[in-house]
Amino acid sequence: MMACLLEAPLRISVLSEVTATSRHYVDRLFDPDPQNVLQGVIDMKNAVIGNNRQKANLIVLGAVPRLLYLLQQSSSSLELRTECAVVLGSLAMGTENNIKSLVDCHIIPALLQGLLCSDLIFIEACLRCLRTVFISPVTPVQLLYTDPTVIPHLMSLLSLSQHTQEYITQIFAHCCKTPEHQTVLFNHGAIQNIAPLLISPSYKVRMQALKCFSVLAYENAQVSMTLVNVLVDGEQLSQVFVRMMQRDKPIEMQLTAAKCLTYMCRAGAIRTDDNCIVLKTLPCLVRMCSKERLLEERVEGAETLAYLMEPDIELQRIASVTDHLVSMLADYFKYPSSVSAITDIKRLDHDLKHAHELRQAAFKLYASLGSNDEDIRKKITETENMMDRIVSGLSESSIKVRLAAVRCLHSLSRSVQQLRTSFHDHAVWKPLMKLLQNAPDEVLVMASSTLCNLLLEFSPSKEPILESGVIELLCSLTQSDSPALRVNGIWALMNMAFQADQKVKVEIVQALGTEQLFRLLSDPDTNVLMKTLGLLRNLLSTRPHTDMSSHGKQIMQAVTLILEGEHSIEVKEQTLCILANIADGNTAKELIMTNDDMLQKIKYYMGHSNVKLQLAATFCISNLIWNEEDGSQERQDKLREMGFVDILHKLTQASDPNLCDRAKKAMQQYLA
Amino acid sequence: MALPSCQQCALRRALCSTTVPTRHCRAAAIRGYLTAARIDTTGLLTGDPAFNYQEHELNERLKRLYPAVNEEETPLPRSWSPKDKYSYIGLSQNNLRVHYKGHGKNHKDAASVRATHPIPAACGIYYFEVKIVSKGRDGYMGIGLSAQGINLIPHHKPPDGHSFCSSGTGQPYGPTFTTGDVIGCCVNLINNTCFYTKNGHSLGNNLMKNDLRPNLYPTVGLQTPGEIVDANFGQQPFVFDIEDYMSEWRAKIHSMIARFPIGERLGDWQSVLQNMVSSYLVHHGYCATAMAFSRATETMIQEDQTSIKNRQRIQKLVLAGRVGEAIDATQQLYPGLLEHNPNLLFMLKCRQFVEMVNGTDSEVRCFSVHSPKSQDSYPGSPNLSPRHGATNAHLHNTGADSPTCSNGVTPTNKNKSHNKYTGVSSASSSPSSSPSSVNYSESNSTDSTKSQHHSATSNQETSDSEMEIEAEHYSNGVTESSTRIMNGTYKHQEILQADDSSVGNGVADDSCSSRQLCGGNQAATERMIQFGRELQALSEQLCRQYGKNATHKKMLQDAFSLLAYSDPWNCPVGQQLDPMQREAICSALNSAILESQNLPKQPPLMLALGQATECVQLMARVRSGSCSFARVDNFLH
């Protein structure tokens, strides 16, 4: 307490002293003699370099508006205006709060205005300051695009000097965040203007130009397609990138060049079997995952590699055997290491900061590696403690890690063998169910998708999941706004209903409710509709379950609705199959037989041009006239009257063997 | 799935071929050898251009990949060895193709073959590839490395669903391979790892066991009929980009060297470097440069300035081919030196004789007033200190000097004015008689007047011989000459060219004019003959005194042989007349003088350089792979 009392006044006095000197600097900016003002700005420049408190003081004391005023004043000497820009650039180098204050003072338009000057030194000073402001995360990038004349002007300044090249490309690289930004830059000739900078004598310029291309090409087919045809000094751009990936080049350059080629490849501009991808980009990215690289580089390397090979099984196969990648990734989970915790606080801090990033990157890469090939999935699950790591990843605090872990789990869940073995052994369904309770949509999509696979009939996890009350959860998913979640919800229910016992089916129907069922049958998303029909089929299949007297009418209504509506062949086929299932039920048969309208529809589809629909409709009739069942004679008679026999007869001549066969079997029912 | 263990053992045993010298194997080995020889002959008879081209490409590639390897000491593998193989192995296609010709009934029938030579450590990183031409019946093939007598690192790869086995552990390793695949094997002797590649993709590093490192041979093992593989030891471009991998290691090692910690001794470090440079300058007598350097860096020069200049003068004389004067000056400045070094004296005298033939020694030059062109020895003169030649003429003021003796570059009309100066200075510095002649170069340099020269040729040329010049001039000289020093010592070619251009037309004339014995002067020839007799006498005297000396005899014979040809410059022993030959004797004399002054006969810089070079060679011998990327010439630009 005593110490505090003594210290407080002391601190205040020091502060006031500092403020006094700072005030002096600001006062000099208002001197009537321009020469004194210039000297004042120069002194201020020397005073603020590397002194964050001084910077903050000057900002608080209102130096910024005055400096901006002097900078914009055409009566100011060029020297003064340049020094003002330099001081502002120095202030921007401070804390994020400094940047905020500068942006609030409208420094950006003022500096952009300054770029119209013809003096190179002044332009460079303005650009340097703009660069520092724009690369800060607190500056809204949109400010670069508000005035449409800015981008073309920046493009024209690219030719002036290496400094303008470095600053402008750095600004572009940081401010290109959306497809719209990409398009603006592209339309103003970014590619033609920046491509020559890739062979600039200055490393910084080369590097920033390369970064520009990586942000421009990301998920942008237009840019990527243009890039492949660009020549730099007679050399194809992709070859320039390949050279930048050579192993004696700086890591930053190798990694960024690999990103460029990855994005161009994913955007469809380079084939996945091109040598520059298979023999250069992929091995380069695998190298970036090695223990020798910095943690940041390993994260970026793994994420980029995951993105590169996501759609291509051949790349996945090559990567899985390159440089022990699968076991190399296991090291990503060893941060912070037990050694760092004891020996080095700084290192522990560093490790902790990157631990989440590393884990999520590794999960992503495992997910990508295992998305198609069964052998790779086996290799992954056999990696040390892999399943445990996924399980604990599912309940980590970081959303990014949870999402990546569930992606990884989803990728592995495509394996029948893994579902039967490791998934069950590690009871992955438990954390998965927990994850589903309360998660953001993107996690939910992945988790529910994984759940679909876990609910497959042969999965040993199906039983425990059922017991955990999953039905309610899935039914609520079908009411989601997101089509992906609705699909997954209904898909999971469909899988669950497959060959399930009556109890489960009743539970599903009750939980879902007829109303929701109809809503799903009129869902704008075809996938949802298809899975709903699939669910109906599964609910109705096997005779004892077919006679769902309570919903009979509604189901018939739904079937009519779909058969009359504008739907794809697949949807209609699925619907006719449902009808065939109904026709198989003891009492449900009557629902069709008493509905002449429906019988006419079946007749129509038997004569349809699509064989699949003909087949499904024939199935339906075949079930209705099946001999061994009660009342089959009446039904046969009625259908004969309606002309079905003629149609069946015609179908026995059909070119499709299945259809022909099915029609013959149906005809036999009459003969018997 | 790994191989059943019994098969692994068998294959490993099979690959270890030299340990099984059964009679059966030997006989088969000879048969294999004959087969291979026949194919070789056919290749040669038809003079297959493709083969020659391949051979050429192989040599080029090996040179590029392994520049540090001295193939006379440690030849590189270029094919499979027809001697070092199992009988079930057949070789063809210049011993590059391996096929299995046994029964392949069980694992006892496994067989292997090694390359002709082990991998030299000086490779640093070594790589070869094998293409699976046919996987044969079962595809039990191993590709890898083996050590002589010891077991190897077999990399077995049965193509059908089986896997590689890595060394010793028997762990399954890597993906499967099959017909059409190219499997590569890389040995990194820097970090002692090896890795395999499949179709251009690295499969990842494995540590090598210590005892496997020395003398690893590229090896393949086969086990079932129909198995055929082709080796690529560099005959063709590799599928895997090994040069890219090497470039990474080169960069690593270079940055390791660049960042080698010198710890707290930063100051010491700097002064060591400064002393290295300074002592080098002093050693070679770059007096002015050395002074300027020591002034700028505040270092001390051990040797007296006058002494440096004297050495410089003597060296210039030798390099200019004026050996007689050099001997005189040495005897005068360092009395007793040559008396104590009769061998050196003899060498000098022999050289003097050669220079007489050349027409450059002053004892014959004085006769030949009429053909200044042929006398002009300076343009082609070699220089430890390059470009001294141009100013030499003004330095030596032997009384006999005639105006025509001055540098061919100097226009005749200017010679007169020169002569005046020379005349003035020669008064104070008459040769061999005056004890104060030690200083005569200084007095001469007061005629630093050669301002014409300053403008005509680049100024450093004179700065060496001139003493009192403005400071800025010195600093210029320092930077210029420091780059030149390296050149001067290692790249004679360049200096000569530089000299040529600086002296210009003198050389051009020289090369077209026909050279004549002793400058074509009768009196000079007689003097030469007389000198030859004296030399013969000296040789006999030395022989009596110290016993026979084969080197002397040879030297004398070579020198006298020049007279046997009408055009000594174009005769089998004409090489002696090349001004370049002066350098060795010049540095020997310089070293002898320094030694007599109790100074090191070699500059520390050269010692360090020599040590570094030797050290790198030693690294290769003790199998430290990084030597391949730490070559001294990489750092001499």
Automatic annotation (TrEMBL), chain B:
Ranges where the B30.2/SPRY domain occurs: 58-238
Region (Disordered): 368-483
Domain CTLH intervals: 307-364
Gene3D superfamilies from the UniProt entry: 2.60.120.920
Biased composition (Polar residues): 371-384, 399-424
Source species, domain of life: Eukaryota
Low complexity bias: start-end ranges: 425-448
A Pfam family it matches: SPRY
Family per record: Belongs to the RANBP9/10 family.
This protein's name: Ran-binding protein 10-like
